[in-house]
Fold Carboxypeptidase-like regulatory domain-containing protein.
Amino acid sequence: MKSTLLVLFVFLQSTISFAQSGGTGLRGTIKNAQGEALPYAAVVVKGTPSGTITNAEGRYEIALAPGKYTIVFQYLGFQTVQKSVDIETGFTTLDATLEEQALRLAEVEAKAGNEDPAYTIMRRAIAKSRFHQLQVQRFKARVYTKSSFTVTDLPNLAEMAFRKQLKEAEKEANFKVGVPLLNETVAEVSFSQPNTYRQRIIANRNSQGDFLSPNQFYNASFYNPTIANTVSPLSPKAFAYYKFEYKGTFRETGPDGKAIEISKIQVIPRQYGEGVFRGSIYIIENTWAIHSLQLETINNIGVSFTIRHVCTPIQGVWMPTNQRYNGSGSYLGVKATGYYIRNLTFTEFVVNPAFVEDIEVADEKKGPPTTTLSKGDIKGKQFDELVKKQKEFSTKNLKQLVKEYEKQEKQARKSRKEDVTVMRDDSLVVDSLARKRSNTFWDSLRSVPLTSAEVKSYRKADSLGLVREIKAPGTDTTKRDTTKKKNPNRFSPGQLISGNTWRLSKQSSLIYTSPITRIEYNTVEGYSLEGALTFRYRARVDSVNRFRQIPLGEWTLGGTGRYQFGRKQFVGYGQAGYQYKNTRVNLSGGRYLYQFNPDNPISPFLNSLTTLLFEQNFAKLYQKDFLNLTISATPFRQRLNLSSSLEYAQRSELANYKEDLKPWINWRNRVYTANRPENAELVNTGFLTHNALVFNLTASARLGATQYTIRNGRRTALRDNDSPLLTVNYRKGINGLAGSDVDYDFLQATISHSFETGIRSRLNYQIGAGAFLTDKQLYFPDFKHFAGNQFFFQQGDVVSTFRLLPYYQYSTGKRFVEGHVLGEFRKLLVTQLTLVRLIGLKENLFVHYLYTPNSQHYTEIGYGLDGLIPQVFPFFRVEVISQWQDAKYQGLGFRIGTTLKFGR
């Protein structure tokens, strides 16, 4: 049956290919003088929006109506060729041979002791970069993208362990080591100033069978100061990171038929590694726009990327219509290569009226312009009015002009009631027929012909899909396929062990967490099992597109149960919650065990390991019978985060469930400690069972303007907002009501900030202070506790966590000041070596400080090396820390750490 289907499939393919021989257009091959194919060369139909690029075999094909055309062939590093062609009926063949570009040195060739002429070129290009970005008012384009991803090698252990799964993947999903996974997308893209991007996928096809999200390269621009966290050669900060060398100039015909001069500039990073490029950029003389570029960089896990752009003039604006990205590297032992190509055909293009007139830029370091403007001459003036009066500006004046223009535009947007805090407004819509397009439809859209290898890969994928879809009743194939398929909403005994989520309807689901997945151990409970069951209901309304649905509300109702084998008791709690937009109300109550530090300085999973393997029971627990009401909201467009809670609890001290506890490994110099924490402020941290009514209020906000992105209608605050975050917390123990025994007022404030200090360099700090304003009656659970660590493996926030501080030694019921500073450096000690930077290692220095009445100015000073095992386990780090009190050295410690969190 399978062989019959394959024969039928090949026949259909042949029939389709024959049918495609109709139509009119142009096809051919582009080669160099040695007869070698030039892959991904640009083919532009002069005077029209039509264009394409060649495939990996140097072949191109473009549909054109009968008529006379001038065809422009471009390839980076080669002379541009123009050819005239007369298309009548059918496809006309037009081949081209490109010669390597011969560079000539300009008359300004550098002499000994003189500045390289590349610097005056780059100063002008940098000064005019924002001008070129603002030139485009809006556009619409048909965008064709093709990407390929190939796993070239797997670790031997992975191949041995997953041999069966790899065979099934090859059979079912067309995946195999060494065979490329292809993806093609045709999209209609639109842009309008200042930040609105719309994308509609009208066709998508790939050789694996699953939809791959289109890449977001369509809005990348080297006129931006950074691209994917890498400094652009046209950034205002470029001279701090790059050296430039002039390599020569060549001439070609411009869009108006006149000759233009193009200079090749070598981009040389002062220190190569993550965050910088190296390669060549071609700048057009006088306009100082990008003509083309070839640059490479490396990311933080050691993957190398090569980027090639070829620009085409669209209504006088040079736009990157031909783009190619190549990547290769390895991660966790898996080696892979890939490429991504993109071709734009503009259907609408509108130039910003204020930037229609081109202007000249004078490099004041070489010679000042005829007229220099003051700030007063520029302030309040219209950009186009000044340009009409004066055609040449200094680089400084041009930056001031553009800044004033953007200021005026922002004010105009405010007056139109537009939200100026939105930095990007994107939307992505996928046509319902995108994955169902026929081969005939694809060949009418595809602007880059498939290679023979790609055709073969698609045929195999389509044949696999055909075999899966067309099944003969009663055959073995049908039986195997139906038995493999499982209904995720059907109950099976195995789900009691693994856990499961059952979709009861479109709005409701039942989530079950198996106790087997939460087996823990501590000296208070012994072994414990914890399971949970939660019902969730989401009500929604219709929305503009299927990517954004506005919830009317979300209700949750559930419970958590925990059995303690050591205490032979069952504890647990129930909870009910309701959320509307950004406001949530949660009610919970029951009996449960908690760490004295509510931030859980050691996770239950890690504490289980330290207790059983290393005879160190760090977690200290107490019991609460409680009822808690918590309300959280983010008012003022999420500029402020508020969280308040009111809790009534009966709190009880607990002891280890028995005295003669035995670990898995009995360490000679260690014994289990009591469950009562040691503290420098209290001789005895124990307490009698008591009642506590506690009100807690926390508010946090950025001290600067919060910026946002909108993605398919969803508004999200930018993660890289570099404004300081201020958090204020007030906690009150209410005495007298409902028999509450606590009576205190606690107030604390924390400011945290993280900002870049250079490429791959960042400074992070957090400073906090607080005090008990009144302390008539409080117990150890009410104390202020700190993020300590006593185990050699350190996890959690690397900025605010102490490395050597005992968990509860300096917990205080009085007052405190704590400070944390961590500097991440691209170049410090071992990272001075280029090879070390290239494999992704990063160094940091940190200081942690704590003042309480008994802490004796506790201080930690440390050095860390991130990326302990490059490209295999890049998320691990090693640290060495010195410990000080009252400026006196106390000792040295070492930590292995990770930013990953294990357990809850």
Summary: Residues 395-415 form the longest helix (21 residues). The mean pLDDT is 82.
